[in-house]
Amino acid sequence: MISAGALRPGDKLGTERELAASLSVSRSTLRQVLAVLAQAGVVRRVPGRAGGTFVAHSKVDRDLSVIVGLPEYLRRQGFVAGTQVLSATMTGADDLTAVHLDLPAGSLVVDIVRIRLADGVPISLERARLPVEIFPGLLELPLGGSIYDLLDTHYGIKPEDVVEHLEVVEASPDEAVLLGIAARAPLLAITRKSMTADGVPFEFSNDLFRADRTCVTFRTKAERAEIVGKATGDRQVDPLRTVRSAT
Fold first, then answer.
1. Which of 15, 32, 107, 126 is deepest in the core (most CB within 10 A)?
2. Are residues 23 and 113 in the same domain?
């Protein structure tokens, strides 16, 4: 029923008694099947009076090996992409942003905060900062789609070199409300710096992905690892500290 689409993500299944009767199986057999489905992530079981068994939402695969905007990721995986723009302002760069964008402290940047949706469900909270000097008039453009596509179309700038850092953090109360999760639920935090082919940084972003709706893919080529080993004098490199990959 789930595979055929008769039951959609978020739908609540009937009680064990109802399911056992409609499927003509014993309740013990049904419990075993539900346990397997829950372990595989196909369904999720919520305890309590208002709980029950629900069809789980598919996870978004966040591939850190290719440079593609999130809406394109979602479309490739069969999700309907959506965006809620929470704020878009021009402000002075804080010290951290200035360092990552190679700007004097206080330089003007465009600060964009958005919620990303997959099939109408929030999956990430993202904040991007871009230099006003490089992107004049950016706030006058529609910001609901891919920022990368927008920058390419209107300014002829594409990300050619991207550095991303990944860590697990806990959702703050405000973040939890925006993403529809419990406070202190795990989030996948990705900090990103994007540069042009000439090495000019033009984006500094922080993305918070729901860990229950997202998985992360890494790809490493052997010859690339060999080059890194030689370049570092065979010193050990922590792959989780610096991931030169994609957005």
1. 126
2. no
Q: Is the pLDDT confidence value at 79 over 60?
A: yes
How far apart are alpha carbons 36 and 13 in whole angstroms? 15
Domain that holds residue 141: 60-245
The alpha carbon of 220 is separated from its chain's Cα centroid by a whole number of angstroms, namely 20
Closest CA to 215 of 82, 86, 84, 56: 56
Distance CA 235, CA 247 (A): 27
Q: Could you read off the pLDDT of 4-42 as tens digits, one per residue?
A: 778 877 788 888 899 999 999 999 999 999 888 877 667
Query: What is the spatial distance between Cα 102 and Cα 110, in angstroms, rounded to a whole number?
Result: 15
Give the residue among 54, 89, 84 at the shortest CA–CA distance from 177. 84
The whole-angstrom separation of Cα 127 and Cα 175 is: 12
What are the pLDDT digits (tens) for 166-210? 999 999 999 999 998 999 999 999 999 999 999 999 999 999 999
Rounded to two decimals, what is the model's pTM? 0.70
Rg for the chain, CA atoms, rounded: 22
Q: What is the CATH number of the domain that holds 109?
A: 3.40.1410.10
Whether residue 46 is found in the same domain as residue 104: no
Q: b or e along 159-177 (b: 16 or more beta carbons within 10 Å of the residue's beta carbon)?
A: bebbebebeeeebeeebbe
